[in-house]
């Protein structure tokens, strides 16, 4: 019995050894496979982080192009900046100015390696200048702004990293001159003269109104509104003017029975009539005087001067042979 037990134990040892070796080999193969996949995952993670960093860097870059609409009141100062590029990287700065009603012009500045630069321009308007020195600030200033400065202004910057530009649609505002007066009985005129753009008018209270617009060659517009109030209970009216440069409100008291315009009409009618009558009377008087002079010239005889006849008489008496023979015949008879 003891021999038999020892023999069975010895037979089990090789079997256990085989199972242990198979388990170790399988575990090693799985570990190798896992470790072989990990470098690929690391590469994917590194690529993802790199792309995210590039996206962040792209967001911080200066935009290469852009446009802005800018409105400026007349007789004020306007400053137009260039793209926010470090001046140490700027090689050439160029302002291209395209006016609405004038020829275009250019202002440019080129830096050199020594730190200085050369400026070129064909703009003749002395109100358009650099804000400071172009090597310190590339901004453009217009001082003062006038209506002819309407147009498009573009700053172009050349750098080793690329070109950048920014444009400005500049619109000049002109404040209108506002007036309010009564033209005739219960009729009032409100005017907004030479505004840019056109002003808007409104009345309080509302009446029977007729609007008018007059456009001028420089782009300004005169707006007029003539209103009449037939109701006698309206004693005071107000005209409100709305404009991008500001708002105004004027009031006037309606005068009952205002006859000044009627008197002016009477004067305008009578004065031409009197003028025509004076001219006709003057012409008639000149004709009478002229006729009288003509009659006096016809009735007056033309006198014959004796001095003019004396030479003829002396000739007939002294040098006429017919006269001498006649006289001799008379004497002999």
From TrEMBL:
GO terms for cellular component: external side of plasma membrane. InterPro entries: CD200R (IPR040012), Ig-like_dom (IPR007110), Ig-like_dom_sf (IPR036179), Ig-like_fold (IPR013783), Ig_sub (IPR003599), Ig_V-set (IPR013106). GO terms for molecular function: signaling receptor activity. One of its GO terms (biological process) is regulation of neuroinflammatory response. Its main location: membrane. Residues 33-55 have a biased composition (Polar residues). Keywords: Disulfide bond, Glycoprotein, Membrane, Receptor, Signal, Transmembrane, Transmembrane helix. Residues 33-65, 299-333 are annotated as: Disordered. The chain crosses the membrane at residues 264-286. It comes from the Eukaryota. Belongs to the CD200R family. PANTHER family: CELL SURFACE GLYCOPROTEIN CD200 RECEPTOR 2 (PTHR21462:SF2), CELL SURFACE GLYCOPROTEIN OX2 RECEPTOR PRECURSOR (PTHR21462). This is Cell surface glycoprotein CD200 receptor 1-like. The lineage of its organism: Eukaryota, Metazoa, Chordata, Craniata, Vertebrata.
């Amino acid at each position: 019995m003891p021999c038999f037990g020892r023999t069975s134990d010895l037979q089990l040892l090789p079997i256990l050894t085989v199972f242990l070796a198979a388990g170790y080999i399988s575990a090693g193969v799985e570990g190798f496979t896992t470790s072989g996949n990990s470098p690929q995952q690391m590469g994917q993670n590194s690529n993802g982080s790199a792309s995210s960093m590039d996206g962040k860097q792209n967001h911080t870059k200066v935009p290469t192009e852009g446009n802005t609409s800018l409105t400026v009141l007349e007789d004020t100062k306007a400053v137009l900046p260039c793209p926010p590029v470090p001046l140490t990287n700027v090689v050439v700065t160029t302002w291209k100015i395209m006016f609405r009603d004038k020829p275009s012009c250019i202002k440019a500045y080129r830096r050199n390696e020594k730190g200085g630069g050369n400026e070129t321009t064909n703009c003749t308007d002395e109100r358009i200048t650099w804000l400071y020195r172009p090597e310190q600030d590339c901004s453009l200033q217009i001082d003062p702004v006038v209506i002819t400065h309407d147009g498009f202004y573009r700053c172009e910057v050349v750098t080793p990293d690329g070109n950048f530009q920014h444009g400005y649609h500049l619109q000049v505002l002109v404040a209108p001159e506002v007036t309010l007066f009564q033209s005739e009985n219960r009729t009032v005129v409100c005017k907004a003269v030479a505004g840019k753009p056109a002003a808007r008018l409104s009345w309080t209270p509302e009446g029977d109104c007729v609007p008018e617009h007059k456009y001028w060659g420089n782009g300004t517009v005169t707006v007029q509104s003539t209103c009449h109030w037939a109701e006698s209970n309206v004693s005071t009216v107000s005209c409100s003017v709305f404009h991008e440069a500001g708002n105004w409100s004027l009031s006037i008291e309606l005068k009952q029975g205002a006859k000044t315009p009627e008197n002016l009409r009477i004067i305008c009618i009578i004065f031409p009539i009197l003028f025509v009558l004076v001219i006709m009377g003057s012409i008639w008087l000149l004709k009478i005087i002229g006729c009288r002079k003509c009659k006096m010239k016809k009735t007056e005889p033309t006198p014959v001067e004796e001095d003019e006849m004396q030479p003829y008489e002396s000739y007939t008496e002294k040098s006429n042979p017919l006269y001498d023979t006649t006289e001799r015949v008379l004497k002999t008879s």
